[in-house]
Each structure stands twice: as structure tokens, then as C-alpha cells.
Write a structure and sequence with these properties.
Blueprint: H1 3-11, H2 17-25, E1 31-37, E2 46-50, H3 62-66, E3 77-84, E4 87-96, E5 103-109, H4 117-138, H5 144-168, H6 174-195, E6 204-206, H7 207-225, E7 228-231, E8 243-245, H8 246-270, E9 278-285, E10 289-296, H9 304-308, H10 312-318, E11 322-328, E12 332-340, H11 357-367, H12 372-379, H13 383-397, H14 402-411
Parallel strand pairs: 7-9
Antiparallel strand pairs: 1-2, 1-5, 3-4, 4-5, 6-8, 9-10, 10-12, 11-12
Helix pairs in contact: 5-6, 5-7, 5-8, 6-7, 7-8, 8-10, 11-13, 11-14, 12-13
Length: about 425
Amino acid sequence: MDLMTAVELIQAPPSEHLTRLSSALAEAIPHREIVQLAGNGSYAPFKIIGEPPGRPGVAVTASDVAALRSLVPLKGSWQGRASMAGVDMPVLVLAADMTGQGALLVLVRTEDTPVPEEYVTPARALWDLVTAYREGLRSEPMAASCVAIAELRDAHGAALTALLGVLRDRALDDANARARSVDLAVSAVAELRSRGELDRVLMEERAGNVFERLAVSLRQILRARGVRLELGPSDAEDSTDRLLPADVTHTALAVVRATVHASLDDQVHGLGGDREHRLHIGWKVGTDELRATVRDNGPGTLTRGALDSRRVTERLAQLGGRLDVDAVPGWGTTVTFEIPLSSSSTPCQDPLAKLGARELEVLGHLARGRRNRDIAQTLHISESTVKFHVARIIGKLGVSTRGEAAALAHQWGAA
């Protein structure tokens, strides 16, 4: 447990911190399981790595760990025996005070002999370092919740678009359409549940993991459409472990998926006969930028306008990215994206903060689909006043319709 151990720990993505901690402490403090209860922190507050000590299917719970809080001095340690998953086990508990209530780390040990203080002190220092780092991430301008909302929105969109594609495919009979739809829905539900955790979206992710995640999601979409997916090498071996900023990976995944859907629409409308539909996806991380390509064998009529309608150009522009569309009639289209890795995203700020109290009230009713007359009766104001508020709401939010304003209200929890 030296300085290099601490450096390697902090350089790892937050999702790997607990695993790295367990490895770093394994030799000095042998343990079968390591558990964290991270106070009021926003990142993965309860997480377990290792082999449960109890019966098969019975795991350590947050209540087991919380019961130890009163035994540990703030920013201190405690060791002894405690009930973990219904089994009396020797444990070492470390506490850090960076998250208000205090973050606990519990090592369910394999030995009952006391851990020497010379090992406890550096272990506690590593846990303090991890909690301090996470607290810093929690206060970053790009809050984790903003990224999670954006990821969930895109996942919803991808799932619904894929389902719609199956339902529109007249070449499928009812049985095949139903089977493909069920397969898509099950996969989408599993993905959405996994995205509910912030493990992957907080700040950084490894380039190789991002490309693999993209490949998995595209296979789900294209399998249902009968399209062959070809993947280029994700990158040189020395770059797959490179950490990429979350705003870059989120944008890259979103624009590639959007382009794939645009390509599918282009192929359906322009590619006939028995020709097999194919899509090739390439992914390369350079020194200064992420480069992705989407190449199809369609009619070669995909336009930049079709991508603009799916907000591809808009998303890239937010990070200083660019795209190139090379369409060859009769042969296919290649779309290339380049996203700078040095860009920094703007803070994810609540757009509803611009609205006054009465405007927020009106917006809440809009989001519930109520008409102006009903809103006026509920708020005891005239219908013309409601129209005035609606116009101001639309103007302040920078949207063009009541529906778009209502969507923002649902997104930001005002509905």
C-alpha cells in the first residue's frame, strides 16, 4: 500500500474503485468480501465485491453495515465480530467523514486475529482518498444526475425506435414480428435497469468498454431488422484502456446510434431486391480526438439533412465535433465523426430556473395535458392570463410548442 497504489486507484474509473481497493488490501488484510456504504454520496452508495459469507442467495445488506456505524468513531476504525448475512464474522470497519453521514468500508475477514495498526492506518488512508475523490466528483458542474437522465433518454429512444422498425416491417408475419418485439423489449428493459445505476456514467469510462457497450446495443437493434453488423477494430491495444470523459462517450454513442437509425431508414426506402443489408462500425481513439465511422451498403442517398433531423450535428457542435457524409449512389454512405477529447461540457443547468412561481404552476398543469380553460379554472385566473403565461413559458424555455415545454417539465421533475 504505497503511493503508486493510491495513484492507480484514483486513475481507475469510479466503478472499479471497490475492486481495486480489495486487491490493494488483500495481502495485508485477507478478506472474503468488501462492502461499502457511502453515506449520502450520490455514487453507488451500497456496493459489494467478493464471496458472501452466508447461505447461497443470502447477501450482506445495507442494514448489516449500517448497524456497525455506531461502533466506529468518525473517521476512525473498528474491528471485531459482527453479523454479516446472518453469519457471525470477523470484520474490520473503516470510516471516512467526507460525505456528511460518514462513508463506511467493511472488510469481511478470513481470520479472527486483530489487524495490526500498521496495516489499518494505510487502509483507512486509502478509503479516505477514495471518498474525498468521489465527493469532488459529486460537486463537479456536470452532475451525475444530468448525465444519467441523458443516457436514459437515449436508451428509451433507441428501444422505441427499434420496436417501431419491427412493427413497420411488412416483410415480417405476426409471429416473427411478435418474437422480435419481445426480444427487443426484454433486452431494452435489462439495459434500462442497468443504466439506473451511476456506475458507468459518472465521469469517465474506458474506451474499450464504451465500444463494446455500443456493439451490444447495436446488435439488439440490427438483429431485429435482419441487418448484418460488422465491427472494425475498436482501437490499438494500447488505447482500449484509455479513460474517456463521459460527455465525449455519451455524445459518441448517441450520434452513432442516431446515424444507424437514419441509415436503416435510407436502406428500407432505397435498397431493394435480395441484396443483404450491412452496416460497418469503426471506432478509434487518437491522441486528441475520438473518431467513429458508420458505413452502409445502402442506396447512397443518406443526406446531412437526415442526420440534422436526428440532432446529430447539434450534439457534435456542443463539444466542438464535426462530421463528414460521403454518399455514393448505388454503393452506400460513409459517415465519419470526430470529437475532440480535450473539450469540456457546459454545466447541466435546470432550464426551469428561469420561470417564476406562477409560470411553474401553469407548466405543471401543461405537463399533465390540461387545456387552458381547465388551468384557468383550477388557478382561478382568466383564460387569457393562462395564454399569456404559456407564451412566456415557451419563450423562456426556448421551445416552440406546448408539448416540448411539457417534455422539459417531466425531464426536470416539475410534473
